[in-house]
Write a structure and sequence with these properties.
CRO Repressor; alpha+beta; 4-stranded antiparallel beta sheet
């Protein structure tokens, strides 16, 4: 009994450190790869806890490998927009500017009743009052009233990468974007985040420069 207690404590302590390193979020916000890693880790660590004859290293080594893979994948995703889009997916409009997107509902296998339920749960009486409904990357649905629609921000540039589809959503072109960047006296590659609302209001965040020491 004492051996099981000690092994459980050691596994718990090790997992706490490993998950802290991976920077995990709440379980409802986990991405697909993060959820898979969490499930695999739970299976791996259960074996040495249940069977004292299994060495602790049989759990420690696989968990360390998974942690390293998660860190490497996160780094690569942040450097590759294509991979990030493939792994994480993108937010999808179910309702856009008051228009129900039936094709998006079909593609995501979300029924009208499910969408209406989500709308009501967010305190909105009916779909006629919805300006935007967005299926987020974590599987949750964000809903905005018609009165809030003009304040919805679209990411135009993220970490120096231009989102051309977002320009189309707000009815702007690259000429408009060049004027915005020229007025701000900044190059596209130096923009960490540029958002714009449907009514053309923009917000720009510059990339931070590395601090020089000495």
């Amino acid at each position: 009994m004492a051996a099981i207690f000690i092994r459980t404590f050691l596994i718990y302590l090790f997992l706490s450190i490993a998950i802290r390193i991976m920077g995990k979020r709440q379980i409802g916000e986990l991405e697909t790869n993060e959820l898979i890693s969490t499930l695999v880790i739970s299976e791996v660590v259960a074996l040495p806890i249940a069977d004292p004859d299994i060495p602790l290293l049989n759990a420690v080594v696989p968990v360390l490998l998974i942690v390293c893979m998660e860190i490497i994948l996160s780094f690569i995703k942040n450097k590759s927009e294509g991979l990030k889009k493939y792994v994480e997916g993108e937010p999808l409009f179910l309702v856009y500017n008051g228009e129900l997107k039936q094709d998006a509902l079909a593609d995501t296998r979300i029924s009208v009743n499910e969408l209406l339920c989500e709308i009501r749960m967010q305190g909105i009486a009916g779909i006629e009052d919805v300006g935007y409904a967005i299926l987020e990357q974590n599987g949750k649905i964000s809903v905005f009233k018609n009165s809030d629609s003009e304040h919805l921000s679209h990411p135009i540039i993220v970490d120096g990468e231009l989102k051309r589809e977002a320009l189309g959503l707000i009815g702007k072109d690259e000429g408009w974007l060049k004027n915005i960047l020229r007025d701000a006296d900044i190059a596209e590659k130096d923009v960490f985040l540029l958002t714009a609302t449907d009514n053309g209001k923009t917000h720009l965040v510059r990339k931070e420069k590395p601090c020089e020491i000495g």
